[in-house]
Design brief:
The protein is an alpha/beta fold. 36% of the residues lie in helices and 19% in strands.
Amino acid sequence: MPKYQRILLKLSGEVMAGASSFGIDSRRVASLASEIAEVSAAGVSVGVVVGGGNFFRGITAPGDMNRVTADQMGMLATVMNALALQDQLERAGVVTRVMSAIHVNQVCEPYYVRRALRHLEKGRVVICAGGTSNPYFSTDTGASLRALELRAEVFAKATRVDGVYDKDPLKHADAVLFPEISYQEFLSRGLQVMDGSAVAMCRDNGLPVVVFNLNVPGNIMRMTMGEPVGTLIH
């Protein structure tokens, strides 16, 4: 029996590129869609927010580009990733809707909370794209907003590492993993695996966050079932 009946899954754009550093690896996206399909088939209501880092990583140096323009380009990149994930989910037999905060009506629906909730109630996977449509907001912050709007029971942050560490485990071999950590300790330590403003929003609304490794097959389902996967921020 799943622990969570509704989840908001946050994916980085980089995961869409697979072993490459740019673009979309269809095999990786198909594998990801298969895992999400399994969770949906278990009766769990699934919302997804995907980043755009595989297409656009932002400004390389101050002054290279206007911040607002750069953020708008990044938000458009999330729409491309959302469409790619929708395609693979539908190939897996999952009815899926892409809803964008930036209106691109010829390719997907505009994001409205009530309509998104209705899709979820009908058992459809909802992929939220376009960030919040506003610059200066990270994808993590946009995902925490969507998790609260869509009444998710958990914000599931998928990463390349096993959870929250006291320092970057990709740079420090002696990094220590936290099985769980409070919102306040996460913020006071200035940990970087997730945007602090997103954690603060979850704290203020009592929404638990699970940070887990997406590169371990089956982890999305394990997290949904309540198994001790990754780090619980609560």
